[in-house]
Write a structure and sequence with these properties.
single chain, about 250 residues, mainly alpha, MetI-like fold, disordered C terminus
């Protein structure tokens, strides 16, 4: 591969983009010259490296990871079921339209503050994450069901396919891409909502509580380092889903 093709390759561009961001970050930190406002990348990396061997530090992220996994599991189960029913039945889609619209319109902070009275600090982030991400996956699956070509359904009816065969051989392949796209969105949202919930509820263990503590101690480098760690974990989880867009 020649140099031009390498520079324009899909694998090289993210690396180049990251390098540009690091250079801009380093330049901005030198111009501002106030570590409390914008620490240098080396300070953030140093903070992160110095804490990676701390079990308590890693335990906070493990707790958040468990909450994110629980929220995603509940959202995938309920969202898929509601999405399939919504896609198959117009009446059901109209019935759940109002609750889903209400959840979308209510500010996340208001939901968190209200849910404090209903759940403990450990479970509140999970509930809020499910509530905020459920409409996303439900809509994605519903759209996938309704995008299945009518001719395939007619053919299945002509050949006398059972309902189970129609579901597994016609509907599921049709909703696969929509489901994966919705799941990626849900994953990213779940991390943000769980950490936001932890920051307000302050459970004993959680990256949000860790983030709040760093802010109180005016450890700006720590805030950046914790945010960077959460970003890496989120990207790693998204990588497990792969990228099937545009593939058959």
């Amino acid at each position: 591969m020649d140099k031009r093709n390498w520079l324009t390759g899909s694998a090289a561009m993210p690396v180049l983009s990251a390098l540009v961001l690091l250079v801009l970050w380093q330049a901005a930190s030198q111009v501002i010259a106030q570590p409390l406002i914008l620490p240098a990348p080396t300070a953030v990396l140093g903070f992160l490296v110095s804490h990676l061997g701390d079990r308590a530090f890693l335990g906070h992220f493990a707790a958040s990871l468990a909450r994110v996994a629980a929220a995603i599991a509940v959202t995938m189960t309920l969202g898929t079921a509601l999405g399939i029913l919504s896609g198959l039945h117009d009446g059901f889609r109209s019935f759940i339209a109002v609750p889903l619209a209400l959840v979308r319109s209510v500010p996340m902070t208001a939901i968190i503050l209200a849910a404090v009275f209903w759940f403990g600090a450990a479970m509140l982030p999970v509930f809020v994450a499910v509530l905020m991400t459920l409409p996303v996956l439900c809509d994605a699956v519903s759209q996938g069901v309704r995008s299945v070509p009518r001719r395939l359904l007619d053919m299945a009816r002509v050949y006398g396919f059972s309902r189970r065969t129609v579901l597994t051989q016609v509907y599921l392949p049709g909703i696969r891409d929509h489901f994966l796209a919705g799941t990626r969105t849900v994953l990213g949202m779940s991390w943000k909502v769980v950490v936001a919930g932890e920051t307000l509820a302050l459970p004993r263990w959680g990256a949000g509580a860790l983030l709040y503590g760093a802010k109180v101690r005016l450890e700006t480098a720590g805030v950046f380092a914790i945010a960077l760690m959460m970003t890496v974990l989120c990207v790693a989880m998204e990588g497990l889903l792969g990228d099937r867009r545009g593939r058959p």
